[in-house]
């Protein structure tokens, strides 16, 4: 039996993504927030990276997830908010500890 497709929107690091300016780690061009969507099955290995909880229960089967990542217009690089956060945090640790957020 085919499961009904559910949808879930997730904001990743919303303040970091929407209220700060970010530069591409490759070419230093300004990054733009984009929305990614992907169907993930609860039983697939990818499922552990996604939150299947719903308002009062859990989703089963296929869920279409939407989440924000960054894209560089110049070189086309797509980077997750988590990865970019870690890169910037590392750079800040090296150069300026006061700039951490
Ligand atoms: Zn770039």
Termini gap: 47 Å
Order of helices and strands: EHEEEH
Quickly give the structural class: alpha+beta
Query: Helix count?
Result: 2
Give the overall pLDDT as a whole number.
88
Portion in helices: 10-25%
Ligand roster: zinc ion
CA-atom Rg in angstroms: 16 Å
Low-confidence stretches: none
How do the strands and helices of this protein lay out in sequence?
Layout: E1 6-10, H1 14-19, E2 31-41, E3 62-72, E4 78-80, H2 81-95
Parallel strand pairs: 1-3
Antiparallel strand pairs: 2-3, 3-4
The site of zinc ion has 8 residues, from loops.
Description:
The protein is α+β, with helices and mostly antiparallel strands and 101 residues long. It has one domain (6-100). Helices cover 21% and strands 30% of the residues. The protein is built from two helices and four strands. Strands 1, 2, 3 and 4 form a four-stranded mixed β-sheet that branches. A hairpin with a 5-residue loop joins strand 3 and strand 4. The termini are far apart. The model has no long low-confidence stretch (mean pLDDT 88). Residues 24, 26-27, 29, 72, 74-75, 77 line the site of zinc ion. Residues 24, 26-27, 29, 72, 74-75, 77 line the site of zinc ion (ZN).
Briefly characterize the structure.
With 101 residues, the chain is of the alpha+beta class.
Supply database-style keywords.
2 helices; single chain; 4 strands; 4-stranded mixed beta sheet; 30% strand; 101 residues; alpha+beta; binds zinc ion; 21% helix
């Amino acid at each position: 039996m085919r499961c009904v497709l559910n949808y879930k929107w997730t904001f990743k690091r919303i303040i970091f993504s929407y209220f700060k300016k970010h530069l591409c780690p490759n070419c230093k061009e300004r990054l733009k927030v984009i929305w990614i969507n992907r169907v993930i099955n609860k039983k697939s290995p990818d499922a552990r990276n996604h939150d299947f909880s719903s308002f009062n229960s859990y989703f089963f089967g296929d869920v279409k997830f939407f989440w924000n990542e960054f894209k560089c217009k110049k070189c086309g690089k797509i980077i997750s908010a988590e990865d970019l956060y870690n890169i910037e945090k590392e750079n800040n640790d090296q150069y300026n500890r006061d700039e951490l957020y």
